[in-house]
Amino acid sequence: MKKIILLPFILLFLFSCSSDSGSDSGSLAAVTTTSISETTSISATSGGTITSDGGSAITLRGVCWSINHNPTIADSKTTDGTGLGTFTSNITGLTANTIYYIRAYATNSAGTAYGNEVTTTTDETMYFPPNDGSATWTTKSIADLGWNQSAVQPLLDYLELKHSKSFIILINGRIVMENYFNGHTATTPWYWASAGKTLTSTMTGIAQQEGLLNINDKVSDYLGTGWTSAPLAKENLITCKNLLSMSSGLNDALGDDVSPANLQYVADAGTRWAYHNVYVKLQDVIANASGQTWTNYFNTKLRDKLGMTGTWNPNGGLSVYYSNTRSMARFGLMALNKGKWNGTQIIDETYINQATTTSQNINLAYGYLWWLNGKASYHLPQSQLQLNGSIIPSGPNDMFMALGKNDQKIYVIPSKKMVVIRMGDAADTVNLALSDFDATLWTKISALYQ
Description:
Strand content: 15-25%
CATH class of the largest domain: Alpha Beta
Largest sheet: 6 strands, antiparallel
């Protein structure tokens, strides 16, 4: 009798990605993980692409994440539909300043397949100093940021050489640099000059959100007719938005006097951009609309809510704000956070976004009394000449700025979570709000982190 020998069959399964096999039928899906497109202190955006279902329907897909390598669906996960194709996953509930490992997954009858691992580090939480009048303000060192310590002294030397009185850099609300020069101190008030125009812009937005005014209304609705010497039909073309965007059409060559006789018609509102102190009439609009003095409304609705100090001082027909440097930094921090202060929305985010984007099609680098960097062209004060390129080529393109006479500066850079403040005397003999001081200063600031 012949012996019958049965040889076992060996089945070898090869998979191109890691898996949690749930069945011996079919194949796992083929999935890749999308690179992280956005990260905050508590969230991130990723996703995946499923190019093959392995022969059976994809019943579950999404991303999973952990603080350890190779996360699985036993860890935190999203569920983002079924089937083949590309999907986006919004990852929430993360902890600030933490490294996370993320993989896309796809489940079919054969089990769960995982894509490649991607990594992200969540942002540090935004810090807001207390409003109790204390000197407390959390700091962060150059070393903590991994910045270039050797670039610090050249920056300080330049600031002192250029007649600065104070300088602050905030990152995520924390003070990274705070320096005072030439006898100035942390408690000494100094004028904002035209950098304070942004305070008026902000207050206009607050009054609008409270239903006291509408920026599309004509100014004469609030001040009455005859607030200019323009013909009535031309005066009635001028809206509050025209004052915010410097497009009133009034003559900018007649000095700072904003009495009716000095506010003369040159062009129809909206057809000409000219840097003009007629913007200050918005303070009268707000006072009339609110039934309060400008100072009282400002202090109640903005200054005190941010923990600022400071006063409005008359200067001819204008009103100029004076404060210490940290108060200016508080305002810049509120602007960085799109109108929010420590969890409270002081001014509507939509208005802040409008104020810090191009407000008209003549000077692309001007919003609502804010200057904008990184635009294709710009105009300078007292000039109708269009200049090509960014205002400050050495500065970040997304930077928006409050700029005042004698180089008072608030720079806000959303992409870097940064606010920079400079107060002082004129850096150079040219006293315009914009000078080559900005370009050189930003070359030295960027040397810190590049």
